[in-house]
Design brief:
By secondary structure, the protein is of the alpha/beta class. It is built from 15 helices and 15 strands. The protein folds into 2 domains: about 170 residues, VC0802-like (2-Layer Sandwich); about 220 residues, HUPs (Rossmann fold). Helix 8 packs across helix 14. It is elongated, with a radius of gyration of 27 Å. The two termini are about 45 Å apart.
Length: about 400
C-alpha cells in the first residue's frame, strides 16, 4: 500500500472526444508547477494520479491547488489489487488512525465487471468500520464527520478520507494566448486570473511614462505579474515607453478627450504586440461605468481602433466582488501600493463620458501618431516573470522591498 494524489476534473469531463487534448495540457502544467522529474503522473478520462517516492504529499497538494483545470484533489492509499478481502483489511487498519464519531462510506466502481456493485461495497465496508471501532462510531449518511471514499478501478483500489477543492476551469493554454493590459490597479490582475481560469495563457503589456511614472510603479506591476505567474508557470511582460505619445496627446488634444485618445493609442499598440506574439485577444480590467473611459459609449469609441476580440472578465462585477477576488489571489495589497501609473497621472478634471468617434479621429489626424505607435512597439522591453519564493524575489528585485 502506498500514497498517491488523485486529481478529479469535473468540467473537463464535458469535453468528450476532445478530453485528451485538455488532459495533456493539464499534465504538462502540473509537471511545470512541480518542477520535479521524480514524480510519476498518469491519467485516464476519469482521474489523474501523481505518485512520489517521498512523503511530501501535503507540499505537493499546496502546489497543485494553484493549477487550473482541477476540480478536486485527494491524498489516497493505493492498493495494487481489487481483492475485496484485502480492501476490507486495509480499511480496518486505516480507520484505526482516524478520529471521528460519525461516518459514511461512498464507493465508485469504474470497473463494472466487479462482482459487487457500489451500494454493496459501501454497505459491507461500513460494517467493517463499525466492527473495527467497536461501537465507538455510528453511520450518518447525511452529515457525517468523515466520508470514507473507496474507488475500485481496473486492477487497483483506492481509499481516501479527505478532499481539497481545486480552482476548476480549464488548463492554462488550452484556449490559446491573450494579451493582458496590466496596470498597477486592482481590476486588471483579477481579469488576468479569470482569463487564465478559462484556459487562456496570458502575456502582459504595461505602459510606463518616465519620468512621470516611477520605477516603483513598474516594479509593482512586476510583483503583480509574479503573483499571476503562480497560476501559469510564467508571465511575459511587454513594457511600453508611453511618454512621447502621452505628452503629444497632452499638447494636441482637448483635455476632456485626453483619456479617450490615450486609451485608443494603448489599444493600437496592444493589438500590434498581441499579433506579433500570437495572442488571439486583448484582455483588460474594464468594468462598466466604473470610470469615464468605461462607459459603454467610451468603450465603443476606444474599441473602434482594433479588430481583435477584447475580453473584459470583470466588466459586470461589483467593485467589492473584484476586491474579494483580488484578496483571494493575493494581489490586492500590491495593487493598493501608492504608485501611480500612466492612466492616472494625466486624468483631466472633467473627462468626456460620451466621446464621439469622429472627434477622436479629427484630433488624432493632427499628429503622425502611427509613427509614434510603431516606435513604441519596436522599443518594447520584455521581462519574463516566474514564480519564486519570497527569498528569491528579494534577491532578484531588492529594490522592491
Amino acid at each position: 500500500m502506498k500514497k498517491v494524489i488523485i486529481i478529479k476534473y469535473a468540467e473537463l469531463n464535458t469535453k468528450k472526444d476532445n478530453i485528451d487534448f485538455f488532459l495533456k495540457i493539464l499534465k504538462k502544467n502540473i509537471e511545470t508547477t512541480l518542477n520535479d522529474n521524480t514524480k510519476k503522473i498518469t491519467y485516464d478520462h476519469g482521474r489523474m494520479f501523481i505518485e512520489s517516492e517521498s512523503d511530501d504529499f501535503e507540499e505537493l497538494l499546496e502546489k497543485i491547488k494553484n493549477v487550473f483545470g482541477i476540480h478536486e484533489i485527494n491524498i489516497a492509499y493505493k492498493l495494487e489489487t481489487t481483492d475485496f478481502e484485502e480492501i476490507k483489511s486495509t480499511l480496518a487498519e486505516l480507520v484505526k488512525e482516524q478520529t471521528f464519531s460519525t461516518f459514511r462510506v461512498t464507493t465508485k466502481r469504474s470497473d463494472k465487471s466487479y462482482p459487487l456493485d457500489s451500494m454493496e461495497i459501501s454497505r459491507i465496508l461500513g460494517g467493517v468500520v463499525l466492527r473495527t471501532l467497536n461501537g465507538k462510531v455510528s453511520v450518518d449518511v447525511h452529515n457525517p464527520e468523515v466520508t470514507i471514499n473507496v474507488e475500485v478501478r481496473r486492477g487497483k483500489s483506492y481509499i481516501y478520507f479527505e478532499k481539497a477543492k481545486g480552482l476548476g476551469g480549464y488548463p492554462v493554454g488550452a484556449a490559446g494566448k491573450g494579451l493582458l493590459m496590466l496596470s498597477g490597479g486592482i481590476d486588471s490582475p483579477v481579469a488576468g486570473y479569470l482569463a487564465m481560469k478559462r484556459g487562456v495563457r496570458i502575456e502582459a503589456i504595461y505602459f510606463e511614462s518616465p519620468p512621470h511614472t516611477s520605477v516603483d510603479a513598474k516594479n509593482k506591476v512586476i510583483k503583480l505579474a509574479r503573483k499571476l505567474s503562480g497560476y501559469s508557470g510564467y508571465v511575459k511582460i511587454h513594457v511600453i515607453n508611453f511618454t512621447e505619445i502621452q505628452e503629444t496627446i497632452l499638447k494636441n488634444a482637448p483635455h476632456d478627450y485626453l483619456i479617450t485618445i490615450m486609451r485608443r493609442m494603448m489599444y493600437r499598440i496592444s493589438e500590434r504586440i498581441a499579433k506579433k506574439n500570437n495572442c488571439k485577444c486583448l484582455i483588460n480590467g474594464e468594468s462598466i461605468g466604473q470610470v469615464a473611459s468605461q462607459t459603454l459609449t467610451s468603450m465603443t469609441c476606444i474599441n473602434a481602433v482594433t479588430n481583435m476580440p477584447v475580453i473584459r472578465p470583470v466588466a459586470c462585477l461589483d467593485k467589492n466582488d473584484i476586491i474579494d477576488i483580488a484578496k483571494n489571489i493575493n494581489t490586492y495589497d500590491i495593487s493598493i501600493e501608492p504608485f501611480e501609473d500612466c492612466c492616472t497621472i494625466f486624468v483631466p478634471k472633467h473627462p468626456v463620458i460620451n466621446p464621439e468617434k469622429y472627434l477622436c479621429e479629427e484630433y488624432e489626424s493632427n499628429v503622425d501618431y502611427d509613427a509614434l505607435v510603431k516606435k513604441a512597439v519596436e522599443t518594447a522591453e520584455v521581462i519574463k516573470v516566474e514564480p519564486s519564493s519570497l527569498n528569491e524575489i528579494k534577491e532578484d528585485y531588492k529594490d522592491l522591498f
